[in-house]
Design goal:
about 325 residues; alpha+beta; Rossmann fold; Methionyl-tRNA Fmet Formyltransferase, Chain A, domain 2; 2 domains; 7-stranded antiparallel sheet; 9 helices; elongated
């Protein structure tokens, strides 16, 4: 297959935007003739569904005045009937849906390609960036793989590039870094597509791990089982989607925790009490966690109320008491 290609690009979020921008800028180098875009449709979110959330890739496509499509799952199988030109390459990044065979069969074998933010077969699934942080991995990366119509992330590997995880990344910071790497990887593969198809390799089944979708229960914290480092890594991984929650004041009401990180020292008043006990230190709520570790919380949200500072919450709930014992959350 010779360039320039007709490319059908499917994506949604900021990670896919990084990949798309890199490809879009290559038109003057004869990488493509036609570039069509498919994204999920805008969705209503927020209280009473008043806010219309537009996928970042759709917003960019509209800004660039490109032709874009927003089919729902039931319409995706027939989307090819609306395309101006038959694609030579299908490329997805963070699209989140299996492509039907009617769409994949539009292109030659191994020219339906996915950009995945992990070193496959590790972290197969919907949330590889989040789980690389939550599991405190020291390395992740980007994989360019072929696509199948029946199983996510099980295709042949065309190209991979590793990335060392340092410091304490959040989802947003790691997604940005991997997005830049993914942009470089995707354009490299497209510019040398025949070579990478010829040298593709199967994934090693013995190395498979999974990165499942972030569900609601991910946000629940069990201080009896989770050290502060684990709670912190979950906050950095999932906090943008699922605020961490726990039960306070020996009640069954869940409070959300915001602005958290491990506390580096020892709190004497909490040494001989059970994990899940807390005290106020300055403007922070200090919570004892598993393995004699401590978590500091700067703000929290009681049920049905606004987010407030730890000091404000303490004054409103505990008056002159020094220690709070609260039970583990209901899962």
């Amino acid at each position: 297959m010779q360039r320039p290609f007709n490319i059908l690009f499917l994506g949604s979020d900021s990670f896919s935007v990084d990949v798309f921008k890199a490809i879009y800028q290559k038109k003057h180098l004869d990488l493509y003739n036609n570039l069509s875009v498919i994204t999920p449709p805008p969705a209503r979110t927020g209280r009473r569904l008043k806010e219309l959330k537009i996928p970042p890739l759709l917003a960019l496509s509209n800004e660039l005045q490109l032709r874009s499509f927003t089919p729902r799952d039931v319409e995706l199988a027939d989307i090819y009937t609306y395309l101006d030109t038959r694609p030579d390459v299908i490329l997805t990044a963070s699209y989140g849906h299996l492509l039907p065979s009617s769409l994949l069969n539009l292109v030659p074998p191994k020219q339906a390609i996915n950009v995945h933010p992990s070193l496959l077969p590790k972290l197969r699934g919907a949330a590889p960036i989040q789980w690389s942080i939550a599991r405190q991995l020291h390395e992740t990366g980007v994989s360019i793989q072929t696509m199948q119509d029946d199983v996510f992330d099980s295709g042949d590997i065309l190209y991979q590039k590793s990335y060392k995880i340092t410091d304490k990344p959040t989802y947003n910071s790691l997604s940005k870094d991997l997005g830049q790497i993914a942009a470089e990887c995707a354009t490299n593969v497209l510019e040398n597509l025949n070579y990478y198809i010829h040298n593709s390799r199967k994934q090693d089944p013995s190395e498979i791990t999974h990165a499942p979708k972030v569900h609601r229960k991910i946000g629940f914290v069990d201080f009896n089982k989770m050290p502060a480092s684990v709670v912190d890594s979950r906050y950095r991984a999932f906090g943008h989607q699922r605020p961490l929650s726990g039960n306070l004041l020996q009640s069954n009401t869940l409070h959300q925790f915001h602005d958290i990180e491990p506390y580096p020292g020892i709190i004497e008043i909490l040494e001989d009490v059970q994990p899940g006990s807390a005290t106020l230190l300055g403007d922070k709520l200090i919570i004892k966690c598993a393995d004699m570790s401590y978590l500091q919380v700067k703000s929290l949200k009681p049920p049905g109320k606004r987010i407030m500072s730890a000091h404000e919450w303490w004054n409103g709930h505990k008056h002159d008491l020094k220690v709070v014992n609260f039970t583990k959350p209901l899962l």
